[in-house]
Predict the 3D structure of the following.
Amino acid sequence: MAFEDAGEGRVTAARHALGWLVLANAVGVWMAALLLWPSLGSLTGEAGYGRWVPVHLNVQLYGWTSLPLLCWLFAIHQVGSSKWAGPAIWGWSAALLLGAVSWLSGHTTGKIFLDWSGGSLLALMLAQGLLWWVLAAAWRRHRTGWTKLKRIATALGLLMLAGVPWMLAMATSPSTYPPFDKTTGGPTGASLLGSTLSVVAMLLMLPASLGLSRAKPSKRWLWWVFVAEFVTFIALEAKGGTHFSLPQIIGLGLLLPWLWWIPSEWKCFDWPERSIFWKRSMLVWWGLLTVAGWLEFLPGVLDRMKFTNGLVAHAHLAMAGFTSSFGLLLLTLLGGEKICSSLSRGGLIWNAAVGLHVLVLMICGWLEGGSTSWIDGHPLWREAAFIIRFLCGLIMLYVAAFWWRGSLSNSDDS
Amino acid sequence: MNRKLSSGISVSLAVAGVYAYFLLFAQFAFLGLLQAKVSGEGLKIVLSMMALGGVVSGFVVSRSGKSGRTAFIVAMLSCAVVARCSPLTDSSFLFAMLSLVMGASLGTATVCLASLIGRNLEPGSGCLWVGLGTGLAYGCCNIPVVFMASPAVQASVSAAFATLAALGGAKLDDLRGEMPGVKAIPWRAILVFGALVWMDSAAFYVIQHAPELKDGTWGPERLWRNAAVHVVAAIFAGFWLSRGGWKSLCVTAWAVLALAGWWVNDAATREWAGWIYPAAVSLYSTALVAWPGLLAVRTESAGRSIASRAAWLFGIAGWIGSANGIGMVESLQRVPGLFLILAGLVVVGGTSLKRLNRRAAFVVLFMGLAAFFGRKKPSVSTDAVERGRQVYLSEGCIHCHSRYVRPGSADEAVWGRSADPTLTAAEKPVLIGNRRQGPDLLRVGGRRSEGWLRAHFLDPRLLSPDSVMPAYGHLFQDQRGGDLITFLRQNVAEDVAETQARAASWKPAANLQPDASKGKLLFTNSCIACHGAGGRGDGPLAQDLKSPPRNLLVGPFSWTLARPDEPQLSTVMRVLKFGLPGTDMPGHETWSDQDLADLAALVLELRHQP
């Protein structure tokens, strides 16, 4: 994937993604500060800690995580020179900003990551509609030059994407809620298997969809394994169960072999030199996330870690570790030369800060799970953990700001 | 006198006179006189005449090429005449005519003044004089005797301001015979300043018409402060502009204005809003006045070019932006966050983008409008529990509290019996939560009284010094606080019975070593808010609770007298751990048995003091 193909849409998406990373991290640091010094909350009036949380979570997901994926979609569809690609990204960001205003104003559905309602939901649906139109127009323009497989796969993808705004509207409704494990109040092993398999599918598709040249023949049998595991997910979801049920534990354990299979599949492709750091980082974070996720689901462990900072640590392992490095890999490959150059520095510091942050919160969660006395007592170990978390957040914020500034300082990409 | 100094003083006087006239008469006194005689549609027509006159005259005078000293002096003297005549008027028609003349005179004067500023001042240092004039205008209008005067008196003062402006203008160099200048439309400045004026006008109108907001920001006792802040901020703005950077100043002004607009909505932060709102207004107002003559890229410095820029800027950003901002918030009692963000998008985008992408601007604007018109007014339930559930959602309580006791787990010993999971799943939305920064709240009604919950919402750290819970006093300025408590205690009878049953069956650990000296710290942290430092039931919250806290020295001790089957220490420990369900005495569910024993020992020790 050549840099010169980046186009306004991809460069805009990359810049906005990094901008949202800065904002999300700034909000995260603010929340960490509120836990250390709660009286600071009076500075923001009615917008207290509970209203900042959805801003932090949704900006990470819909801003930082989603925009690199849109960058990827633009690359697959060769959106390149479309005059509406950049404006469509602006529309997406405007919708997210409107969402942030609504969450700070106390408008919420109460559903984590599906907190869209009223005008902001409408704006996001319209933004998705505009993006779909940009992708569809590119498909129409380029389809004759594509292979039959790509033509059909992208057409099916467009059909699925056409349903996303409506699915979003339904999913945000307070009336719908996925099945949950009655012993914990959290997701079942099957739900976790299903959602992670969607990530596996993306990882399997990534190199080929970017047009990377093959060094070795592809392992097509992996797709059959994927299909088998997906069928297993459906069966386990239908059967239901708790984290004490062996089928649920084994079902979630089916993800573990992918820790070897994904790297081995990726080795079949020639990756650009510039992508090596974030590719390796992503595989490490992905491995840690999968192993930790399975271990934390085991009886005894989940019972101790549920509702504690241990699961906050897991969420940061997923978002600051895995999805961030995946997003950075995509931006390195697709965001244009200047953005790639900006992302070539600061990676080690970012990874170290995320690692320490996750480790400290994980230990904190384990200790919290031993007794509830910390709620009133505020022991030293917990205060120390919160201070380390705050400092790690500041480092991550600094690195994110450095990347963003680097992406903005050169406007010749667009 | 030094020529530069003389020009600077004259410009300052002219700016101060024009601006003060506009602020005091056009925005306040004329409106007051008008509202006393005219109402309804007539009022709107009269005010529309002013805007019409302002916009049209600006363009006419800029195109005529006569935007010089004479036109300025005539316009300001006309303004003075209008101000003197207005108190004598009582018919709608005459008010409409006066409004038209005033609008036309102000439109002419502002465009002429912009040209004269460009002709008489240097781009750098000149901004300081503009800042001084702007600051003086705001400062004079905020002097209590002027601000609080009747509309008729304010009209007389305004006429004096207009005359002062004319005198200042008379000392300035007139435009020389020039070739016609370029008449390019300054879109970027129109967008940036238009958004600021729009946001400021909307915020000003909301604050002006909401009594509690008005009292908290520019009530009578705060006028001198506001005057000083205006003067200092405007001079500072002049200094900032003299060193370049009108764009950074506008972004800063937006940020400060947005923060003020946000803070003013909340009683806790309203006082701070009162400090920064005038500062933000003075910052951008100075830039607005200075822009056409001193700050615009001066590839064309002919007076006619400056006049054209001023006509476009003041006509669209000033007159139309102001009317539009007011029109959109007429029925609101709060400054909408959406306004602040939309204005921010325009200001930041307009100042930072090297070239404005019209498609992106269109899409962003479209999204904003879609969200504005697509917003739903939340339906207010007649059921307090349902309303309380909405407050629980709005405040994001689920991010720190669970409402799910895991069946068969250690949770049940601390937070109470688990509920039927099918009932939990039937809630809309499901409120399980996924994090506990604080206690589970499923059965909090059995553990905490209404009075305790209220006191805790108002000041969490008074009851629990290490609590990370934010204070929610603002919820009790309306019914939200009460509704939230009703929601939390919706099953109070069942929950109280459940807590009592758990308490009755509880047994403390064996081999405890009670130490009253260690109990003192626990007492200080957790008991004195109600029981007082000496344990006499006279803590700061004692008067607010329905069941008065016991005097721990003399009783009566109906709840903690020894049961025949256990030592008195265990009985007291039970009360400390589970509280007295149904009263204001809370439990301390998360404490260790050793801590309970230490505090119980202290309580028993107090009981035996004289």
